[in-house]
Amino acid sequence: MIVISGLGAVLGGGAIAPVILLIVLGAMGGTITGPPEQPIAFDHAVHAGKAGIACEFCHRGIPVVENTATALGTPVSAAATIPSVEQCMFCHSVVATESPEVQKIRAAWETGTPIEWIRVHRLPDHVDFVHDPHIRALAETHPSFSTAQICATCHGDVASMTEVEQVRALNMGDCQGCHRENSAPLDCAVCHK
């Protein structure tokens, strides 16, 4: 930070330091690593792939796309959200109850213990990302896309992933490239807090 402040002073004032800081922070992060080890081996290939469960069934915070941009559901929240144990038990009170992984979910349910999932997709804290306008914009641009196809734009084909992992850098360059391709705004204040 001292180096950035000093560079800002050399380049003509303190106003440039925040800009340089944003550029440096934008270039950081977005490192694509392998899938994290989760407390329960949740298999998206089984749930979203074989069973064909829609993204929004478990991730309740995202709006629903019904093949046309005008049929989008009401936005629920800014985040896609991770399903609660109660949500998992909605199905697993009767489905695959003998599975060791499902028994872990049942144990969490019976003890009232939340499952400490490891976050896979993370943006820097200075980025104000909201799912809803992104899903709506992609639905308008691609009216024939399902919610899963829209989600795959950033998250990849999770329906084929045994373990979900980040597939795009999701850094500033990646986001700006997508904004340019889709004629979305590029103003700093649109994404940065």
Summarize the structure.
The chain is mainly alpha-helical.
Give an overview of the whole structure.
With 193 residues, the protein is mostly helical. It is 45% helix and 0% strand. The chain is built from 10 helices and no strands. The chain has helices spanning 2-10, 16-27, 44-50, 55-58, 85-92, 100-111, 131-141, 147-155, 172-181, 188-191. Helix 1 (2-10) crosses helix 2 (16-27) and helix 5 (85-92) crosses helix 6. The radius of gyration is 20 Å and the shape is globular. The two termini are 18 Å apart.
Notable features of this structure?
single chain; 193 residues; mainly alpha; disordered N terminus
Please give the largest β-sheet.
none
Radius of gyration: 20 Å
Along the chain, the helix and strand elements come as HHHHHHHHHH
Class by alpha and beta content: mainly alpha
| Number of helical regions | 10
Q: How far is it from the N-terminal to the C-terminal residue, by CA?
A: 18 Å
Structure summary, number of beta strands: 0
Strand content: under 5%
The stretches of 5 or more residues where confidence is low (pLDDT under 50) are 1-5, 67-71
Mean pLDDT: 82
As a percent range, the share of helical residues equals 40-55%
Shape: globular
